[in-house]
Fold this sequence. Notes:
The complex is a heterodimer.
Chain A: H1 8-37, H2 50-66, H3 73-93, H4 95-98, H5 100-103, H6 107-129, H7 131-151, E1 154-163, E2 172-175, E3 188-190, E4 195-202, E5 207-211, E6 218-223, E7 236-241, E8 254-258, E9 270-273, E10 287-297, E11 302-309, E12 318-323
Chain B: H1 2-9, H2 13-33, H3 47-59, H4 61-77, H5 87-110, H6 117-141, H7 150-179
Helix pairs in contact in B: 1-2, 2-3, 2-4, 2-7, 3-4, 3-5, 3-6, 3-7, 4-5, 5-6, 6-7
Amino acid sequence: MSLLSPRPSERLRKGMEQRKGPKSMVRRPRERLNRRGSLETSSGGSGPKRSWLIVLILCCATLATLDQTPVLEPARTAVGEVLSPLETGAAMVARPFTGIPEWFDTRDDLRERLAELEAENSTLRRQVEVTDYGRAKLAEYESITRAAEDLGYALVPARVTAFGPAQTFNRTVTIDAGSAAGIRSDMSVVTGDGLAGRVLRVTKTSATVLLIVDAASVVGGRVGGADTGGKKSGQVGMVRGSGVVAGRSDAGLLTLDLIDQSAAPLKGDTVVTWGDGRAAPYVSGLPIGEVTDTFASVRDSSRTVRIKPYVDFGSLDVVGVVVPNDTLSDRAVVTPEGELR
Amino acid sequence: MSEMDARASGAAPVLRNVLVGMLVVIAVVLQLSVAPAFAIRDITPDLALLVVVAVALTRGGQAGLVTGFAAGVLLDLAPPADHTAGRWALSLLIVGYVASRVRESSNTHNGPGRPNALTVMATVAACSFIGVSIFAVSGLILGEAPLTLLPTVLISVGYDLLLAPLVIPMLLWLIGKGDF
């Protein structure tokens, strides 16, 4: 219709009016939408709209889903960065008031708490008193566990309960594990440092151990490392105890009689047991001690090697008895993997 | 949406939204830092929930929904929280919705103006129960909550009711202040 109007300026104005028309129409629906939001109340307030509810519920579901992945971590960090100082500040400001609930504690409450604390205090004090002993014991057990790992044998841990008196000239000790723990006679006994001895005889709950320092003890020994003559290592001999723990100059030392008389091991060489790994009395590869000196006896043209044992026989406490892997025991067995079974 | 509401009621929209936002943040901060000192059997009052109820009762509509959602998201993400995000958001969203419906029906029956004290208390009780229950049950569904829910929920509702007469009038007054 406006196209039929003769003058272009008029047409323009009409077009502008037409364009203006929809503009005011747009505003009206917005207001109506506003009023419809109030759900038939004329008070100007608006009730909740279902679409918003659904959208926000879906937002919650999205959040929960997103939180299964680490996507939300930056958001958590950001909120934490902002809110943490506020929380700290609020807690600081409110500190005088946060003590208020304590004002309502009764005397009986306080007295009860005092009794509790005193009991706890005495318990803790007792724990502190035995803590050094406990720590030493733990270290011993740990060394046994480590030994089982190093040696590759299963061990039954046991504690030394009695030392044979020196006047019997037998170097024996009693341990608190017996046949019930899977121990048989002739089994090897080790500490975390090395070979200690072998089991002589067993009762149900205890066993007697012959230490390698006993004069009657003979252990097959093999020297590690090359000797002075450039010979191959692995010289084999017999390790004998001196029978003396303290007093003489050779106290606590062992002697090694090498089968090859000409071999001369170096000072500091390690001596380990030899055997077949399963058979008693001694399994192979247990460290015994290190060479301290070598001297030749002119009279019988033999060579004697002195060995300082790794184990301190004066302070034996926790020892391990080498047992077969599938041993049934009434106590925990330390497996070669260093675990308790 | 809130801008339109604000234009309808003739108040500065920015001021009003800032006020509500500040109230939410303050409530969340207080709920996380100060409220644990007043905990009953480790259950703290839900200040954020009270703020959402107050906003929904005063302004209704989408304001209640959005405030609830925002406060919930804040609670979900604020530092000590380690639960799946969205659980508090959903709870407080529903709380905002319920409180908005209460305001709406109160307006149709009693005419415009603030709902009376009894209505407010009933709303707080219902919303607290609904909010804490939704949070707990969603935790149950997601395998994050222990199985004994009812005592916790009841103590929580009781604590919120205890706190409501102290907090809600102040909140209503503050939000009303922002309105005019």
